[in-house]
Specification:
Actin, Chain A, domain 4; four-stranded antiparallel beta sheet
Length: about 220
């Protein structure tokens, strides 16, 4: 769990630095340590290395119109308001912290990128000076794993529904038929090229480049 949590916290702090708000390095270091500790306590009873996707939804960090309460808690514990931290992140960010893998998605329809993946002999978490593995193979593998996880969750849900229906039949009650759901547009799931996004990140962080506050604000809020 240690490498996964450190990779996730390093990445979130990296995004805060991209926002270039008035947050000093000492505060960021405290926030990173607090985030690891908050996540460790939250996940300690929901961490299953033998079944990495079990409880994945519980471990998912989500930032959109609202700040994820886990990140807000870590920020407030070291003197950073939830509003300030929220303003430094992209408008849409989803991160899955699972045993052996940490992945993320920027944008509602962005591609899933692998941030950290366990490999034999690798004992270091992801750090900003390490290139993020987001090749076509990585994206395809991450998407496949997510689909398999959703399929297993749906299968478990269907089994529970069948059992409930059988029970209802035995008691003479009849459940109403399920309402149809709107079809999703899977084709839009990979519209944001990860490499382009990462190249833009590296460009903005390069001290040799002259980048305006307006450019940074436009990127982080995109």
């Amino acid at each position: 769990m240690k490498l996964e949590l450190q990779s996730a916290s390093n990445f979130l702090v990296h995004l805060i630095k991209l926002g270039r708000r008035n947050i000093n390095e000492n505060q960021l270091e405290k926030f990173k340590l607090a985030l690891v500790e908050v996540l460790r306590r939250r996940y300690r009873d929901h961490w299953f290395p033998e079944k990495p996707f079990k409880g994945s939804g519980y471990r998912c960090i989500r930032i959109n119109g609202k700040m994820d309460p886990v990140i807000a808690q870590a920020g407030e514990s070291c003197g950073l308001s939830a509003a300030l931290v929220h303003s430094t992140f992209p408008s849409e960010l989803t991160m899955w912290i699972d045993p052996l893998e940490v992945s993320y998605r920027i944008g509602e329809n962005g591609s899933i990128c692998v941030l950290y993946e366990y490999k034999e002999g690798v004992n270091e978490p992801w750090k900003p000076n390490v290139s993020i593995g987001c090749s076509a193979a990585d994206k395809a593998a991450a998407e496949k794993r997510r689909k398999e996880s959703k399929a297993r969750a749906f299968s478990n849900s269907s089994t529970s529904s069948s059992a409930a229906s059988s029970s209802a039949s035995s008691t003479g009650s009849v459940s109403p038929p399920p309402q149809p759901t709107a079809p999703t547009n899977n084709a839009a799931a990979a519209t944001v090229p990860c490499k382009d996004s990462l190249r833009k990140m590296d460009y903005l962080l390069d001290p040799r480049k002259s980048v305006s506050i307006e450019q940074l604000a436009a990127y982080v809020s995109s």
